[in-house]
Design brief:
It contains six helices and no strands. By secondary structure, it is mostly helical. The protein has a domain at 22-81: Orthogonal Bundle (434 Repressor (Amino-terminal Domain)), CATH 1.10.260. The longest helix has 16 residues, at 26-41.
């Protein structure tokens, strides 16, 4: 049985401990979640995405965990591989 990523994310965000940790590393986690969501939307495994952008499955896993922050070049390659558009936005605090 597969759980939709949005459902899983909503469940995690309801956990106060997870939410607190997420807020501490918000930009990194937002990028990690966005990449995981794009990969799921494109129906790709981590290995398939890695193959498309020329990296390892382990590197994709580290990016999606938020333990590695991808370069802009990598983000562009991920966007292309998942048929997505990269959009960066700075909003007032």
């Amino acid at each position: 049985m597969t759980i939709a990523f949005n459902t899983l994310r909503d469940k995690w965000m309801a956990d106060p401990a997870f939410r607190e940790a997420y807020d501490r590393v918000s930009p990194e986690m937002e990028v990690a979640f966005a990449i995981a969501e794009a990969r799921h939307r494109a129906k790709l495994s981590q290995q398939e995405l890695a193959d498309r952008i020329g990296t390892s499955q382990g590197h994709i896993a580290r990016i999606e965990r938020g333990s590695v922050f991808p370069t802009t070049k990598t983000l562009k390659r991920i966007a292309e591989a998942t048929h997505s558009r990269l959009h960066v936005e700075l909003v007032p605090a």
